[in-house]
Amino acid sequence: MAAGDLGELLVPYMPTIRVPKSGDRVYKTECAFSYDSPDSEGGLYVCMNTFLGFGREHIERHYRKTGQCVYLHLKRHVIEKVPGASGGALPKRRNAKLFLDLEANGDLSSDDFEYEDEAKLVIFPDHYEISLPNIEELPALVTIASDALLSAKSPYRKQDPDSWEEELQASKHAKSLVQLDNGVRIPPSGWKCSKCDLRENLWLNLTDGSVLCGKWFFDGSGGNGHAMEHYKETGYPLAVKLGTITPDGADVYSFDEEEPVLDPHIAKHLAHFGIDMLQMQVAENGLRDNDIKPRVSEWEVIQEAGVKLKPMYGPGYTGMKNLGNSCYLNAVMQAIFSIPEFQRAYVGNLPRIFDYSPLDPTQDFNTQMAKLGHGLLSGQYSKPPVKSELIEQVMKEEHKPQQNGISPQMFKAFVSKDHTEFSSNRQQDAQEFFLHLINLVERNPVGSENPSDVFRFLVEERTQCCQSRKVRYTERVDYIMQLPVAMEAATNKDELIAYELKRREAEAARRAPPELVRAKIPFSACLQAFSEPSNVEDFWSSALQAKSAGVKSSRFASFPQYLVVQIKKFTFGLDWIPKKLDVSIDMPDFLDINHLRAMGLQPGEEELPDIAPPIIIPEDPKDRMMNHFVEYIDESSVMQLAEMGFPLEACRKAVYYTGNMGAEVAFNWIIAHMEEPDFAEPLVVPVFGGAASSGVTGFGAVGLDNQPPEEMVSIIISMGFQRSLAIQALKATNNNLERALEWIFSHPELEEEDGEPALSVMDLENHTNANILAETRSGGPRIKDGPGRYELFGFISHMGTSTMSGHYVCHLKKEGRWVIYNDLRVCASERPPKDLGYIYFYHRIPS
Known about the structure:
By secondary structure, this protein is α+β, with helices and mostly antiparallel strands. Helices cover 24% and strands 17% of the residues.
């Protein structure tokens, strides 16, 4: 076709073709609805107006919905190199046809194969194709737009230079790094800075093997900066953070480039100092079982190192790429999409979700959940290599690599948006992310079934005044059963004492530490600790109308369909640095907690009067708007929340803004405010000098329009109640949050006000346990009560010393056998370490 003809062909579409500007997100590496990419067989179509990418299965949907006709089609081909005269491949040369910013396929040898990228314009609906580049024949606008799109940076790079979201780049020093042959060998544990006594935040210099403390790298941990001083003295540029090394990589920092970097040769560089980051694959390379030494390190036991593991492929056995400390997300999402209710809600409704998705599906929670669920469950991205097919493809001179696993980059970018911690590349707490995800699920309903209902349950709390012996019963909503670690019940105390003595002796003598002895804790002791009464700090007795000693105990007012159990392994040291209890707990395959069923007010018990604590009016009139604010923060409640894995400053704010009413109420505040950009920012106590004139009220203060404070309303809504009921309850109790919750549970007969619809009963056809579905009345939280007998079907394990570092893997029971999900590696499990888990998933056994 002549140049003029091409120009005339594109004239009708010119108003729809845009040139990407600064700030535009260009999705040229991944489909918005699937994990297709330019590497896929059908390539990727990028809209020349919205810059969204679509695979071959989804491009027609976007065309029909938007009427957009012009797309840039991108395709990467893998070509077998032409053999040279000696029979080998021709020497590698720079390929001018390689212009897509894609990762190389690690399964292909660069000596035998090379890449070739292809770009062309496609005009719908006739699929008319125009090859690029075609500068002479195309209008200038089209050429400029195409070039700008091809050169656009990843949409996951944030413009904020302080953001950790920016993708890591390979260091310029990695390929040519010089390593000194000085005989240094790094032990697997017991590290200490060679210039001071610090044992945290340690960095291994990859040139000379020096172990030195950091100062501000990655997690902001304290240090004396000896690693940086060493670089200034020697010029040795790269260091790896000890404690972050896994089979998938490690945290590497370049002093010269002044930023975190990727080291494509990290395995080789670590091996120079005796560190085998791929040791879990040794058995697959030919070692016999009797050649393998017993392994006790949690890194080895949890990842089943030294055991030949059979890779698993097909639907439900798809791995997920680690994006850089994103294993917490991978582990949680593998567990979530092993649950039928989530499969039905998102994958079962996939056509409807996709058809009704907004114009930008990358910013829609339900679309991205359906995309992720389909990617994990379809088997499309988990296919075993077939040698016969490979030979046939090579004969045709084009290799079509199988995509093994998915990269949850688009999903992570959306669910972590505006969240200080999850939007970073730092390691996070899987339990905190689980609650964050549940919050998003509840805020984005999909159809008549809300899959998060399967986790929700009611907790009955019994509080007793020790002096008057009177009691109060209240109920709250929860999603996780948190079990304390009963260290005092360890069955191997003598071994632990002996080990600690040997460890201290070895440390003093600078010897390798002795073989680890892990505390063995009976599960029954943890369950007993959960049910035992605890003291209530700063308890105000309405019977005495004064402060008194009080005790509180918790029971299940309802049992969830799926019980999530968290072992509270994380605590804080005296230096406020998170620590982890390395313990072994004999978690049962079958669990019966019917004995923890709440009984309510018992015969002979007398209830505490329904009297609220007096409101203290400050002497200074200008501070009267702060009459509900507290002058101190209950640090014990702060510590309880921090041990759950929430940021310390967020915990302090939660306790402050809920008036020191206990960790449970503060927990609900956290759930309601996790999405706020300043969630983890330091607490700033508001000043209300001019509040009366401006109409500003603090949390707990009565608004000038007689409306309850929005903070309190949000907390109650987060528990699953309707807004109108929350307002009515707060007004009826003078904005006392604790009494408002009691009021709600004592008035279940109330209908919804203001024309708001009541919570509908879920479609019973979607539930196999319909006979035990127990929907509460209008206005109450949706629960699925039933018997408290459960069977274990999955657990998430953590390796490392704190939530700030380490690695997560997930074990799930599928088709009668255990499977380990370790990021991209999905294998049949031979020795599932059920005693070392952090979060356990149980499903109810039907009666």
